[in-house]
Amino acid sequence: MSSDNWDACGDAGPLLFQPITIKSVTARNRIVVPLLCQISAADGIANDWHLMHLVAYSRGGAGAFFVEAMRI
Fold this sequence. Notes:
The chain is an alpha+beta fold. It has two helices and four strands. The protein has helices at 3-8, 48-59, and strands spanning 20-22, 25-27, 32-33, 64-65. The strands form two sheets. It has a two-stranded antiparallel ribbon. The chain starts with a helix and ends in a 7-residue tail after the last strand.
């Protein structure tokens, strides 16, 4: 993004990259990873694969992500 685009958005930059607070939870930006149907749980229980998958999104800079139920 060019500096001209940043200037048009104000000093804080685009809203997408600004923190957002919903009730008592603050996300560092407004990038949200939706539910990802990852059907690799054994007997409906999350395992290390799921943990590492979510950690990768966290390290990638997403402000928040949703996690689906493993067992219903």
